[in-house]
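Subject — a protein and its fold
Fields — amino acid sequence, structure tokens
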Amino acid sequence: MSRLVQVSGKLDECRREADRRRRSTDALERSLYDAVTQLNAEVEKIRQDLDSCVEELQCKLDAAEQQRAQMEASAAELQAVLLLL
């Protein structure tokens, strides 16, 4: 009977250790899942911020090109006036 008690005790010990490891693994998996979820949210926010920046820069580029075209037209007009003088 003594051997049976020893084996039973060892089995219970192994089950407790397996349960402890399973809980630890589950907690780690939840933590990793939460971290991935948070990273994905941050990546999406960065993408949105980049899209917004690209849009803003494109508007500024368009405005600069329009201003350049106006300046070139003004320069051409001034040149024409100078030729008339």
Observations:
- Helices lie at 2-84.
- The mean pLDDT is 95.
- The chain is about 100% helix and 0% strand.
